[in-house]
Predict the 3D structure of the following.
Amino acid sequence: MLLATILLLCPFPQSVEVAKAVSERPAGVSLDEAKDSSSSKALPSAPDPKIKTDSEIAADSNAAGVSPAPAAQPVAPGSAPLAVRPGKPAFNPEDVSERQKKAWYALIFASSGAAAFDAWSTRRAVSGNYGTEGNPMLRPFSHSNAIYAATQVSPLVLDFIGRKMMTSREPLLRKMWWLPQSAGTGMSLFAGVHNVGVVPSN
């Protein structure tokens, strides 16, 4: 076992015949490479392409007596006008008649005046202890002059709603635009007349 290990670890000189075979091999390889390079030089080049160029095709066609096709003429558009039907006109929200605008402004003044009358009569009745404010949202203002400003909120909202209805896309709403302002004005007048009736005349 020890002898086998020593033989494996220690190199021995090779014989002359093995060294000679190894030294002769590169020469054989170089001869083969020389043969391959000479054979590659003797190979023929790639074949000519079978597809002809445009100039060759044109030359062949002229030689055969075939004339080239004439160039296509541009197509001119027809002079007849297209028949276009007029479309349905779009609704313009600002397309409001002068009569409607005047009526809307008149209802603004009427509703604000009726609300002021309601506030005055309510203030008079409450200050004389002849009654109390029936609207819970206006009750905190009924004992002061702030009721005049508080009663103007409702007419402003109804004026805005009336304007939106006047410029609406719905035909029914456009016809009934005056209803909110008229209803608010009527309710304020009714409340004011009621308040005046509550206070006895001296």
In short: DSSP finds eight helices and no strands in the chain. The longest helix spans residues 98-127. The two ends are 148 Å apart (CA to CA). Residues 26-31 have pLDDT under 50 and may be disordered.
